[in-house]
Fold:
Amino acid sequence: MAGLFTEHPQSVGESYPEHMGVAFSFGGRMVLAGLACLVHGLLPFLFVKTGSRTITVLHDRMVANRGHKRADDHAGERAAA
Structure:
C-alpha cells in the first residue's frame, strides 16, 4: 500500500513530501492561470498573456527539474563507480 504513495515520486527523484510540494505549487499556478483565462474570456483586454506564459513557465520548470535530477543521479553513479 505504501508503494502507491512513493512509487511515482521516487520515479521522478523526489520524496513523497517533496513531490506533494511541487504538485501543489504547479496546481496552484494552474488554478490561478485558469481563473485568469476565464476572466480573459469575458474581458479580452485583461490577462492577455497570462495563460500562455504560465504554461511556458511550468513546462520549462518541469523539464529543467527533470534534467537537473537526471544529471545529479548520473553524477552520483559516476562517483560510486
Summary: DSSP finds three helices and no strands in the chain.
